[in-house]
Design a protein that fits this description.
Blueprint (H helix, E strand, L loop, with lengths): L21 E7 L8 E7 L5 E7 L4 H9 L3 E7 L6 H11 L12 H10 L4 H10 L11 H15 L9 E3 L2 E6 L2 H9 L8 H15 L2 E2 L3 H7 L1 H18 L3 E3 L7 H6 L3 E3 L10
Parallel strand pairs: 1-4, 3-7, 4-6
Antiparallel strand pairs: 1-2, 2-3, 5-6, 8-9
């Protein structure tokens, strides 16, 4: 298997001469390359799949090279692809010194406006409603800096306006946004308690790897020791499963809306075929 320690598990470039199947890439993005992690799974036509590459740290320029490096791939990135429409509109109005139409300070409406409408994208609000998880606000937290870092990568790999519900590159390439905590919630059936984090997460990963015939090899130890690599692997697994199965769920009421295309949409693997969502 490519990427074993004696071949430079965390140092070599991932192979691109895959003979069959497809490649799924997962990225746990951070503004700091030291905390950015990359995972690659090769989904083979014969069903014998491999975790072929894990790496941390990863430079952002290297991510550009990786995402441009295959003729076909699907990638899932743990980062918001955009900002809430209302947040962007409010910042524009604020810069123009036009603040008409905002709620009265101190009211319940103002609190809802500040903590929901400005803070969360439509896809974030959907995750909150359906799963009871509250994604970090891309506008009001340091996550915004990571989203800005992704915007630079997006600009480097696209040649025109991006549809952030799923960025289609030249050839058979698709890049989507995902959210590992929400994905683990779906796979586990509930949120993974922090005290059980590593052990329970690895149990779920091992179970899914067995179910979908993914050979973890020497990557198992790396996944156990690094939360960044675990998140990257969850992203890569999500990317592969939403492509190789029909069990996928866009976390929004309207994946085709102009708002979704601007803000981005979280995609998850949905093994319940919709039962979890009451549909």
């Amino acid at each position: 298997m490519v990427g074993k320690p004696d071949a430079g598990w965390s140092a070599q470039q991932p192979r691109r001469d895959v003979p069959d199947g497809t490649v799924s890439i997962g990225v746990d993005l951070s503004t700091d390359p030291k905390s950015t992690a990359l995972a690659v799974i090769h989904w083979r036509d014969d069903g014998c799949n491999d975790l072929t590459f894990l790496k941390r740290p990863v430079e952002h320029a290297e991510l550009v090279d990786v995402l441009n490096g295959w003729d076909y791939l699907v990638a899932a990135i743990d980062v918001p692809f955009g900002w809430p429409d209302q947040f962007a509109s409010f910042i524009g109005s604020h810069q123009s010194n036009v603040l008409g139409g905002v709620p009265s300070a101190g009211t319940d409406e103002a609190e809802e406006w500040r903590t929901q409408q400005l803070a969360l994208r439509a896809t974030d609000q959907y995750v909150k409603k359906k799963l009871g998880l509250r994604p970090i606000s891309v506008g009001f937290n340091l996550l915004g800096a990571t989203a800005a870092a992704w915007s630079l990568i997006e600009a480097a790999i696209t040649s025109g306006p991006a549809d952030r519900t799923g960025i289609v590159l030249t050839g058979d390439k698709l890049i989507v946004e995902t959210y590992p905590s929400a994905q683990m919630h779906v796979w586990n059936g509930s949120a993974v308690p922090e005290r059980e984090g590593v052990e329970r997460t690895m149990d779920v990963i091992e179970s899914l790897a067995s179910q979908f015939s993914i050979e973890l090899g020497d990557g198992r130890q790396a996944l156990t020791s690094s939360p960044d690599l675990r998140d990257a692997f969850v992203c890569a697994l999500t990317a592969g499963l939403i492509t190789t199965t029909s069990q996928r769920r866009p976390m929004t009421d309207d994946v085709k809306s102009a708002q979704s295309k601007r803000e981005g949409v979280i995609w998850l693997h949905d093994p319940t075929a919709g039962a979890l969502w009451g549909k």
